[in-house]
Structures are given as C-alpha cells and as structure tokens.
Amino acid sequence: MAANDIQVVVEGSDLPRRLKDKLYETLDAKGIDDVETATDVKEAVEERYLDTRVDPLDPVGTVSAQSIGEPGTQMTMNTFHYAGVAEIDVTQGLPRLIELVDARKTPDTPMMTVHVDPEFVQERLDAENDDGYTERDVAHEIVWQIEATRILALGDVSTNVADMLVRIDLNEETLDERWPTVGTTAEVTAEIAETIESKLDVSTVEPDDATIEFGPEEPSYRGLLQLVEELREIVFKGIDDVSRVVIRKEQTEDPDTDDEEFVLYTEGSAFGKVLDIDGVDASRTTCNNIHEIYRQLGVEAARETIINETMNTLEEQGLGDVNIRHLMLVADMMTNPGTIESIGRHGISGNKDSVLARAAFEVTVNHLLDAAIHGEVDDLDGVTENVIVGKPIKLGTGDVTLRMGSRPDTESESAD
Amino acid sequence: MSVNSSPKEIGSLSFGLMNPEEYREMSATKVITADTYDDDGFPIDMGLMDPRLGVIDPGLECKTCGKHSGSCNGHFGHIELAAPVIHVGFSKLIRRLLRGTCRECSRLCLTEDERDEFRDNLERTRQLGDDLNDVTKAAIRQARKKNRCPFCGEKQYDINHEKPTTYYEVQDVLSADYTDRIAAAMEGRPVGDEEEGDVDREAQSPTQVADKTGIDASRISEILSGEFRPRPDDRKALEKALNVDLTEEDMNKLMPSDIRDWFENIPDEDIRVLGISAEKSRPEWMILTVLPVPPVTARPSITLDNGQRSEDDLTHKLVDIIRINQRFMENREAGAPQLIIEDLWELLQYHVTTFMDNEISGTPPARHRSGRPLKTLSQRLKGKEGRFRGSLSGKRVNFSARTVISPDPTLSLNEVGVPDRVATEMTQTMNVTERNITEARRYVQNGPEGHPGANYVKRPDGRRLKVTEKNCEELSEKVEPGWEVNRHLIDGDIVIFNRQPSLHRMSIMAHEVVVMPYKTFRLNTVVCPPYNADFDGDEMNMHALQNEEARAEARVLMRVQEQILSPRMGLNIIGAIQDHISGTYLLTHENPHFNETQALDLLRATRVDELPEPDGENDEGVPYWTGRSIFSELLPPGLDLEFSSSTGDTVLIEDGTLVEGTVDEDAVGAFGGEVVDTICKQYSTTRARMFINEVATLAMRAIMHFGFSVGIDDESVPNEAEEQIGEAIDNAYERVAELIETYEAGDLESLPGRTVDETLEMKIMQTLGKARDSAGDIADEFLEDDNPAVVMARSGARGSMLNLTQMAGCVGQQAVRGERINRGYEDRTLSHYPRDDLSADAHGFVESSYRSGLTPREFFFHAMGGREGLVDTAVRTSKSGYLQRRLINALSELETQYDGTVRDTSDTIVQFEFGEDGTSPVKVSSDEENDIDVDGIADAVLEAEFGDDGEEFLTDTQTNLSEQMDNFIAGDD
C-alpha cells in the first residue's frame, strides 16, 4: 500500500522520467517507505530540478551553436586518423563535423558497424554441432556475405594470347573459406563460371575443378583485355559497396558480464542490404551515413545518428565535455521538417521565411531578385531581419512585454 | 508615396518590381545631362548631381525637401531610356517566360486543367514553405512541350538565350540552297549531306510534282530556277511530295521592345501559376524603359587634396548610360541605318547591365580609368563587406574603445582597468535631479579634460552644449534639474568588454570600470580563458552603455561573475590558471608550515584578517599554520567535497576545511575546477567570484613566498640518465633494424587488412614511440619532484610530461600527415641517406632532446613537422569560422518558451523540452556524475528530519541580485 502511495507521490511530480526512476531507486535503497518522508525527498529533488531548468526565453539556439562551433577551432584538420578499429580509416575531426552538419549524401569514408545476432550464432552452432565450428566461423560466414568478393581475391587471372583465352586459376582454400556452405570446389567453380557467363556474355569451360577458361567471341586482342578488365569488376559474392570487413571480438554492452561477441566493421556502406542478411542484428547495427539511416529507419533514427556521430567526433578529439543537449538541438533542427536538412545555404538558412535573413546569409542578390518576382513580404519576425532594420530582437530580454510597475498603455497616456 | 515622412518603426517589408509609371511620378527629376558640376563647382541642373537628388556638400540646400546635407536622405531621379533594355538579374526568368508563353497570344501554353493543377500545386508548396521554383520550373517544362498554343493554335518556336541578355527565336525558314535540293530530289539523287541509301526516292518529272502538290508546273520551273521563292504552304507541299527537307534553322533576334510587348499581354492569372505576383511584379517591368538614378547621397563624390573631384563608380556608370542614351536618340532621329541603331542598343544594354552587376560571366567588366573593375549595384550588396553583411547586420557604433590589454592581478575579475584618456572620451548620460545636482555640477565644473568631468550637457529644450575648458565653470552653475549631463566614465560604471573572435558568449562580458593611468586596458588574469586572451599584444574592445535598460541587463546577465559557468560543458570556465595553480600546489602539496607573519602575509590581500587557531608549535614553541589550513580560510563554511586531484591524491574538504590532498588544476583551475564549480553551483556566483579572486591572490603570495623560476638547467638530467636514454634509443634502433631485416627477407607478417609495407611502417612507428616514452620515463625518474617544470606539469599549471620528455629526453618521431616523413627526393627524404633507407633517422626520428639541441638533419625534419602544424592552423581557422557562422545562422532563432518548448521566431516547435529534460546546460553538465544528486538530497532530507539544523541545505539557492549579495557578504565579514 505504501509503495502505491509513493508511486502516486513520485508520478505526480514535475520530474523527467530519468529522475523519477532515480528517485524510486534511492527511496528503495534508503528503505524509505512512509509517504511523508518520500514526499519531502520528492519535493527537495523537485526543487533542485526546477532550479536547474532552462530559463524561459533563453536563446538556446545561439548558445548551442556557439558550444559546437567554439570547440571546432580546437579540432585537428587531419582527415585520417585511426578510430576505434585500427584497421579502418575514418574521417575525423573538423572535416567530419562539417560533413555531418552539411548532411552530405555520402560521407567521405562510409562505414558500418555490424553486430551479429547472438541467437543466430547459437542456432548455427546447434545446427553444425561440431567442436571445430566456432562463433568465429559463424561471423566469417556473415563477413563473406557482406564483403564484396572480386576475382582477384579468388585466384590468379592470366591471359593466353595464343589461344585467345582468359584463364582463371582459383585458389581452392579461398573458395572453401568464402563459400563455406557449398559442398565441393567444383560446385563453387561452376557457380563462379555461371556468374561470369551471365555478366560478360561469354561461354566458359572448366578444364578442372578450380580452373575456368573463356575467351572473346571473335578473337581480338583488344576484346581479350577488355574481358579481363570487366572480369575484375564483377562481384561474385557480397555487397558491391563494401570493400572490406574487419572482425573484432568485443566486450558485450552488458557491463555485468565478461561475455564477448564478434563485431564487424565495414569499409563502405550499404545499410539496407546488410540489414537483410541473416544473422545480422538489425537492432544494433549502425552506419555513419545519416541518409542511409534515414531511408531505412526514418527521421528519429537519423536524428539519433546525427547526435551520436557528432558526439563521437567530438570525443575523439578530446572534446567530449560538450553538453549533449547542444547536439540534440542541432540534430532536432536538422530533422525538424521530417527530412534531413543541411545547415547552410542549401538547407535551413536558405529556406528561412525572411528575405532579409536569407539575403544577409549568402547569395544576397539572387534572393532579393527572387523576392521581388514572387512579391514576398518580410514580416520581420526573426533575428537577422530585426538587426537589419534596427528593432529589438524577439529573443531573451527582447521578448518580454511585462514591465515592473508600468500601467497599461491607455492609462499611462492619459497620465501623461 | 510620401517621401517626407519615414516610419518610426518598420512593421514589414514588401518586395516587388516597380511600375515605370509609378517611378516617373516619384522621381525628383529627369536626368538628361551627363555632366556633374559646372566650371564654378555648382551642380548642373538635370545633371547627375542635380540638387533635387539630394545634397552632399555642406551649406547647400536640397531643392526637394529643403534640408541640408546630413539630414536629407536624398531622392531618386530617373533617366528616360531611348529604347527598352533587359534587366540582367531577370534574364533567366525572361527566358522561361518566353519559352512557356505563346508568341502570339502571350498566354501560358497550358490547358485549363493543367494550369489549375499547377496552381493548386503551387499553393500547396507555398503553404508547406518549400521551394516554389520546383513547381514553376515544372510548369514551364510542361508548357514548353506544346508545339502549338492550346488557345490560339499558333505554332511555338524554341527560344535560344545567348548570355547575358540576347534572345533568339529559332524558326524554320526556307534553306538558302532550296533550288538545288528540289532539283536533286526530282532527279532521285541524294540531297545535301543525306547519307547514301538513306532515302529511296524515284525521279519525278515536274508535271508529276505539279500533280502531287497542286502547284502549276510553270511555277515549279520558276521555283527551280530560283525566280520564285515558294511560300510556306507550297514549301510544305513540295517537302511532302518529294520527301525532302527544304528548311534550315534560323535565329530571329528578339529585341527587348518585342519582349516587352509580348509580356504585356500575359494575363494575370497565367503568371500567378508561375509564382509571380501579378500585383507587385508585372513581367513587362523586367524590361526597363526608365532607369532609376540613385540619390547623390548614395554615390557621393570625394574632393581630393588638389581640389579635383573624384566621382563614385555609380556616377561614372550613369554618365556612360546617359551618353549612349543621348547618342541613341540622336541617331534614331537622324534616321540612322538599322545596323547602327542595333549596335547602340546593344551598347546601352551593356551599360545598363554593368550598372546593375559588373561580375556577369561572359561580359567584360566595366573598368575605371585605372583599370580597376567598377563596383556597381550588385557588388555593393554582396559579400562580407557588402551592404547586407557589412553595413546592416554589423554596424559601427559610437562609445567604443580599443587598445592593447595587459594583466593586473590586483583587480577583481569583475573589473577592467580603463585608461583615463578613454574614460574622459566615453560618457554616460546623467539625468540631473535635485538629489544629484551637486555631483552633476561638479562633473561639469571639471570640464572635458579633468577626470571625472563632462563632455556635453543637454538642456531641457533639447539643445546640446559642448563643455569646454573655457565655459565649464560658467556652465556648471547653469545646470538645473531636468538637464542631462554627459559625464565621464568613473569607477563602478558598467561597460561591455570584448575580444575577437567572439566565438562564444563569454567573449563579450560586462565589467566594472576602474579608471587607471597609462594607455592599456587592464584585466585580471583569471578572465583570460573565457576571452582566450593573452598579453602578447592582444587588443580588446570596450563599449560604454548608453541607457539604463542596457546597463541593468549588462549588470544582471553579462557581468563576468555571471559567466563563470560555461554553457558548453556546464563547468566553470573562469578559475585559477598557470602560476595560480603552481602557487596553490606549492602551498598545499607538502603542506608546509608558516609562522604568523608569513601566514598573515599570504592572506593579506584577502578578506581574512584573523588567523585561525595555529596547527601546532615547532621545536622552539613558535606556533605555525599549515598551507592547507591557510587555504581553508578561503573556502566557504559548510563545503563538503571529495575528489581526486590531477596530482594523483584524494582531496578531502569537510565543512569548509581542506583536510587533505593537493589543490591543483582539478580543484581550482579554469575548465572544471571542482571547488570553483561547486561553490558556483551551491553557493552563489558572488561567492565564487570572491573565491576565485582570493585564490588568485593567495596563490600569487604563495608562489612569491617560495620563489619559482624555470631555467635551462632544470631540464638537464645526470649523465647516468643520458646513458640510459641513449641505451633505450639504441635498443629501439636495433629493433627497427630487425623489423627492416624481416621485411626485406619477406618474412614480415602483415596485420589484418594492411599491406606488408603499411604493417612495417606501423610497427616502426610503434617501436619508436615506445623508445620516446621510455626516454621520458627515464628522464622523469631522474627529475626531482621539486623541479619547477615537474611541478607545473604535475599540477596542471602549464605543460605536460610529454613536453618535459622532449626537453630532457628525446624529441621523438616527426610526422607529416600522420606518417613518418616520406617526402623529399626520389626514394629518400634527404640526399644524406641512401635510397630506400627505411631506418629511423632517415625518416625523421629526432634522437636528441631540445636541451641538447638538434642536428641539422633532425632540425630539418622537425621543421617539416612544425610547418604542417602551422598550415593546419591556418586552414582550420577559416573552416571552423564558416562552420560557426552557418550554425549560428541556422539556430539563432531558437528560444525556450514559458511552456518549456523550444521554438523559432515563427513559432515552429523544434523541441518539446530542451535537451529532452528541460535542464539548462549551464547548470548541469551532461556528465553522469554531475547529474542531480538524488541520493545526496535524500540523505540531506533524512538528516533534516532526524537532525536539527538541516534547514540550510535547501535555502542555499543562487541569486541574480548579486548587488545585494555583495553587500550582504561584505557586511558579514
């Protein structure tokens, strides 16, 4: 009964969820069960919380912009730095921050972090039921479904000019490794040969299990070389855009256990395709391309990604002390219309209502000419416009109409 | 339109094109003379400097408004253009309209249904606030597809646009060699450049052709001989009969006057579909028939030293336009040939074009006599120094001062030392009343040169009088209540102080004035971090506030003590720096003893004037005080804290007493010093200000007491250490050599996802990195704990152990682009090394320490690494500056509301609760540890319940009424 009353007390407060939960925890830990004490504690916490709330009319936008922009001056320009995974180069520092704020269609170095579904791993292990078959093997199976396999990775390509033939000597070990589920080498070779036939429009012969030979229809030296060129581009397995995958064994996110799991890091990204692969844990797999996230998971996920990516970029530069609320505001502003909008001329600043604000930012003359044609009216609501015409800005102290001790306008006029 | 009255406050601005009729009406004068001034230096009537356009020379009277220079804003005039010309800015839109409307009836070439659809679409986009151009462009594209006008059925031709301002209609006309073509076709030969075998045709006799086409056979022979040009109908019939194309494309130039006539007929409802406002901007107004002449005040002429007048770029351009315009008219009246008229027309177009925009691609810019391109209308608006960003968004202000800054530790952090010559120049307005009349009279009496004097007085009738040395005595007696006195700055006035670049709000703070001799602004060193200032020649700006509202806001919101906490991280940004930290470290690290004189001397610049109970007595029975208890005197009573310091020990503060631990950067430093941060959040900003001030003075006393200096000998290590360092480096060299050997033998195993070369590089880098670290460890080991450089590094005052390692041990690997140095000559970095030498020293490993000095080769590599850093900084400042500008521009309109939502100024909700929980980033950092301490609060409440004096905890809230707090606290002590 007391627990119920306490719940009523806590839920009735103005506290955010996070603090309510914390309050329950604390009350529990301290063994407080009488409603009066609980109310006292609640009120004290509430008072403290209300104390730390943002003031109404606080120009939070400018403050957030400054809080992100100012550390920008302390960041390095060095594009490449080894982040997290030593094997994969990721754009870091100021260039990455600019890239995020610009909402580029593709980042400089696209990358994905793919988590393996533990249930899938268990299923596979059970199915194989073999001591030699480990979690790592399961992870590798997934890797080969992601990483683009091109011919050079599978074997040697040689040209026989005399017979006008392209000869591929496949490496059996590699085939076994990359097609773990297919039985014999001959089958894999046949599969590869089929791909080549369909992609290059040639007919192939397989002199033995691991060799494929084919040539141009009409013997021509140029045609032969062309075939080899085209052959190199063919993706036999995996996703085109992913050029490399690195496997790492990492501690699971659960801090209570020492469990480890395999995490795959990819160079190049194809988020949608990866999510469709069996064994990929779609709930934890991420990508550093906000547009891909937006397409696959929607704006809210994109917003979250913007926050995470900017925070990571800042942390990597030793600027992790920037309050995350500033990043949230930027992300919310960028995703406000329901799509991703960049910060700058092509996005938020270019779509402002006010002609003057747009003209004062960039491409001044064009904005003025367009405004004339469309017969636009600037209502002077924003900040920049009011600076230009010399009126007080409707932010902070400029937004307050309440004055201490003043009478309503009509009265003060008659009093004068 | 009323010219004389300008509104007091602008409610909204409406944009549109101007009707030439309206323009003529409001024009002050027609301008017909290309000259400016006559021989006597008076403006010529109906010339470009006509006094009706406004006046710039002092003494002259404006003929339109009767005001004098300074108060007359100027009036527009006009030039009647001899022939219409195109406005360059709209050349693209003109092209679109030409393409989308009918050449005959001028209607938009869309069926009623299509038009309605686009209109609805446009309305929707407008409501959604999306780009209108997408819709209008689609409409034009649709209209352009039509070959015939859906209304009058006229055939439509394609429009070619030759940038910037020429338009052609592409029409099919009879080709020049039509006779040959017909003849060839009739003989069954291939025609023109048709490929062989492409068209099969039989030879036909003229009679056959005549039958098919219905044209007389005789007419056909006439056509064949070239005596008769076939009419379009005949041409078509012939083409059909002979299966031959007789046309070729021809460009028919559209003159601006044609275009104007064309546009005049476009109905209003049609242009609305294209997003054009029919009321404000008729499309024909894009073709100018009358040119506005900006007022003289917008293009003032400058009188040079030799008395010659130098005209503004715009005036030059207008002179050109008038000249050509005049010539055009004369030629036309004289009946000059069409060719000459067209040339002049083009020339007029060129001048009007460059008058508007002188940076059009494809057009040579109009140049000044000196060869400099003219700055015309567009150029005046554009860019950083343009009208919008340079003059409207950023304005120049009065009551501002700028000079070099220098440090003054005796000032409070709230204060700024203002040079007397600045204080006597900048004034504050004082409203004289009965209560301050004696003061006011005294200020005036002191005159403009004596320090707390006055520069101007204003009588109740609004007349402003300058106070001079001569009239000050006399004037001071006249001052009565109701007057205004502009008195000099005095101690205690509030001013705004700023250092550029103003990257965050702490770059502009309010300080209290302390008037001082000499020429620099003086500030306390603890405010250097927020301004990012140092004293190597930095200059700062000061602004004196001019009304009571601004002064109140500055005092309550902008004063330095209100800005101790940075909203970026929710921690203090003002705190002890550099020597202050060394000082507190020396004072508290080994907890030294002080006798009474020493202790009092340490505390003499603080409020503390009585020492606490001594901590003990020495062997001779003289009482002593420890460093920590002296430091504790500055702490507010009731402060409890526990944290680990950057020195490595645990700092424990109980009830305002430092029990144990070293006070260093983590305790009192700027950027998150625990103690400062806690005092600021739990007590008040006033208390925090007092604490920081006192810590700074105490630390300065302490550091002076112990003495603190760094010399080159402080970085030297004994021979023994040098040998060890040499050994460590030799070891690393050996390991590198081994690595190279395995690599060359081809035995090096590559790391996953790396090539062998990359692996080798990484391993070498790693080995050499370790070598430097071990050199550092050795140096560290041999450096004494009381070594000043070590003290600075440990306490966090300045420098790091890495800096020390480089000075005493080994500088280490130099890097360019994150790799060892690989550039220079072919296959080697310098000609001192063999080709393909992979060894450490050939790729920029610096074995020497800074103290021992670098070898020439090392020095060179070091310079390479250093240069990269410099370039990086230069590039970074511009990039991050632009990022900041964009961010601020995008977010500047966001504000929290009373309901907790974050909205922009058009009331669009961006967040329902700022940062998801409505917590201010100033008061709470996002750090887990700094969240609201529910546990602690619960403890406090429990204690309050069972104890007796737990009340205090909750009453300790912050206040902005710092003035009262000041008195309260000052009175307390």
UniProtKB/TrEMBL annotation, chain A:
A GO BP term, please? DNA-templated transcription
| Matching Gene3D superfamilies | 1.10.150.390
Task: Indicate where this protein resides in the cell.
Answer: Cytoplasm
Catalytic function, reaction form: RNA(n) + a ribonucleoside 5'-triphosphate = RNA(n+1) + diphosphate
Q: Where is the RNA polymerase Rpb1 domain?
A: 41-354
What family is reported? Answer: Belongs to the RNA polymerase beta' chain family.
Keyword hit for Transferase: yes
One Pfam family name is RNA_pol_Rpb1_5
InterPro entries named in the record: DNA-dir_RpoC_beta_prime, RNA_pol_Rpb1_5, RPO1C
Keyword match Transferase: yes
Question: Where is it mostly found?
Answer: cytoplasm
State the GO CC annotations: cytoplasm; DNA-directed RNA polymerase complex
Q: Which species is this UniProt entry from?
A: Halomarina rubra
Please give the function described in this protein's UniProt entry. Answer: DNA-dependent RNA polymerase (RNAP) catalyzes the transcription of DNA into RNA using the four ribonucleoside triphosphates as substrates. Forms part of the jaw domain.
Annotated protein name in UniProt: DNA-directed RNA polymerase subunit Rpo1C
Keywords assigned by UniProt, alphabetized: Cytoplasm, DNA-binding, DNA-directed RNA polymerase, Nucleotidyltransferase, Transcription, Transferase
What CDD domains is this protein classified in? RNAP_A (cd06528)
Q: How does it assemble?
A: Part of the RNA polymerase complex.
Q: Name one GO molecular function term.
A: DNA-directed RNA polymerase activity
Q: What is the lineage of its organism?
A: Archaea, Methanobacteriati, Methanobacteriota, Stenosarchaea group, Halobacteria
What EC number(s) does this enzyme carry?
Answer: 2.7.7.6
Automatic annotation (TrEMBL), chain B:
Quote the gene name from the UniProt entry.
Answer: rpo1N
Cofactor stoichiometry and binding? Binds at least 2 Zn(2+) per subunit.
Reaction equation(s) it catalyzes = RNA(n) + a ribonucleoside 5'-triphosphate = RNA(n+1) + diphosphate
Outline the segment boundaries, as ranges, of region: Disordered.
188-214
Q: Which species does this protein come from? A: Halomarina rubra
Summarize the protein's role: DNA-dependent RNA polymerase catalyzes the transcription of DNA into RNA using the four ribonucleoside triphosphates as substrates.
Cellular component terms (Gene Ontology): cytoplasm; DNA-directed RNA polymerase complex
Q: Does the keyword Transport apply?
A: no
Q: Record keywords: Hydrolase included?
A: no
Q: Describe the location of the HTH cro/C1-type domain by residue ranges.
A: 207-249
Annotated positions binding Zn(2+) 1: 62, 65, 72, 75
HAMAP family assigned to the protein according to its UniProt record, in alphabetical order: RNApol_arch_Rpo1N (MF_00863)
Give the PROSITE patterns listed for this entry.
Answer: HTH_CROC1
NCBIfam families tied to this protein: PRK08566.1, RNA_pol_rpoA1
- Cofactor(s) the record lists: Mg(2+); Zn(2+)
Print the organism lineage: Archaea, Methanobacteriati, Methanobacteriota, Stenosarchaea group, Halobacteria
Protein name (record): DNA-directed RNA polymerase subunit Rpo1N
EC code(s) of this entry: 2.7.7.6
> Can you tell me which residues bind Mg(2+)?
534, 536, 538
Alphabetized, the UniProt keywords read: Cytoplasm, DNA-binding, DNA-directed RNA polymerase, Magnesium, Metal-binding, Nucleotidyltransferase, Transcription, Transferase, Zinc
- SUPFAM superfamilies in the record: beta and beta-prime subunits of DNA dependent RNA-polymerase, lambda repressor-like DNA-binding domains
Whom does it interact with, and what assembly results?
Part of the RNA polymerase complex.
